[in-house]
Predict the structure.
Amino acid sequence: MSLYPYNTNVAQYAQSDIAGKLTNLMKVVGYSAGALAVSDDDRFVTVVNMKVGAYTVAVTAMPEATVARKLLITITQVGGANDTMGTLDIVGTDLAGVALTETIAPTANSTKTTVNAFLTVTSITGAGWVRDAGAGSEDTIKIGTSEA
């Protein structure tokens, strides 16, 4: 991203009322990402049974190439009893392209948002999940994008 004509690595100075004295000129840099796409609650993982292991990631990038977003994780109870949730390891990059990993513990029959904002998502892996003993059916999970 260019900030032409300013070089943000070099201080800009303005003349003061005192001869020979320069004053540091503070600058505000604004950034507009443009129009954002709406939230997509199953962009990365469509509705599938919860499991231990890697989930198939449908796409790896956000709908806008310059916007990082938090992920939205939705768990739906199936069969009348909650499963033991375990954790999800989400791997991707942040807005600066730096590797980012977050481990999140989903909550049964609810929606949770990641703490970090991801620009890309390369893998999502479930660990420690256990199917409920009574109903004998897997709860479902879907993972998508939040509003921002």
